[in-house]
Amino acid sequence: MLSLAQTLLTALALALLLPCTVLLVQVLVAFVSRQTNPVPDADTAKVPTRVCILMPAHNEALGLEKILRALLPHLNAHTRLLMVADNCSDNTADLARSIAAGQHPIEVVERQHAEMRGKGYALDFGVRHLEANPPDVVLILDADCEVTGNAIGTLVAQCVAQQRPVQALYLMRNLPGASTKSRLAEFAWLVKNLVRPLGFHRLGLPCQLMGTGMAFTWAHISRASLATGHIVEDMQLGLDLARNNAAPLFCPQALVTSYFPTSHEGIQAQRTRWEHGHLGVIVGQVPALFAQSAMRRNLGLLGMALDLCVPPLALLVLFLVAVCAATGTFWLALGAGLMAMQLAAVALVIVGIAIVLAWLRFGRDTISFRQLCGVPLYIVTKIPLYFFFLVKRQASWVRSKRDGET
């Protein structure tokens, strides 16, 4: 029995070394990368392709005008906007039509369905609507996101040149005066959406789709399985594409931004959907992805499987601390399991090094070193979220509550 316990603890510690090593490699490669800031690369007007910006929108009237007016300069004879007002109970559709005023290439379609709710269904509705007059490239942009500089032209140019899905750098930011906890969340987002994909990008590996700022050729998006209520539909879409040898490419030169909610309800809904969805994919698909990538000799799918095996940073650290405590107790009480304890400690050090390097290179404008030291408390506050994944996992799509909504 003692030998079995030692073996299990050692196997667990070894298993945790894989995501920790992947994380460190991603951070190290990004750390030595020269390019850190998005730069303009192309102009939409110079891209000889027909582009449709597909924007799913659910009750977005509160902040929609600002987003649409910022997009108007990017719309022209080659680039149009299709908004899908999905299950809206406000004036989202009417507001978009009034902004277009017949002078801009903006089309609004409305969808209502009592049961099939979620972003995936809205995207599928939009793609099916485009079949009558399909564009060359479809660029998906959420209704609360802003594009920076020539991000649209850059994404389209890359998509056409590579004939593969392309993902922009998507960053979420806090409003001024945000709490330390919120700034730590922003730093974690920066690591997930900039540092890690940039590292793999420099190694020639693909990235996960991030839900917005995504460009697809018509051939890829028209055949995609979109009509689902999956809570991380973007992640699932990226995996489906990778299985068909069309793994998404990261484009750090194109920047898309949005803001974290400030209400407690909005923050909790957003984080629960993201993290429960990510964990569900890890548990349900990662082992099969490794097997499929080996059988098909699909390097892109292998890269996405390796990236997916890295859980949210807070959960990874919690796992490592728990394993260190368990193996340490086992060793002190029974004098056995030293190797397992050492492996767990090494994994914890690896994660610590990765976090510090990511902060040194990319995060100092987001949080101070003093705030970074609040990571342990931040991790503790997320324990209930992970507990509910075990006992009451979120399985259906829920839109995050926007600031100002009642």
From TrEMBL:
Pfam families: Glyco_tranf_2_3. One of its GO terms (molecular function) is glycosyltransferase activity. This is Glycosyl transferase. Belongs to the glycosyltransferase 2 family. Keywords: Glycosyltransferase, Membrane, Transferase, Transmembrane, Transmembrane helix. It comes from Rhodoferax lacus. PANTHER family: POLY-BETA-1,6-N-ACETYL-D-GLUCOSAMINE SYNTHASE. The chain crosses the membrane at residues 343-362, 368-391.
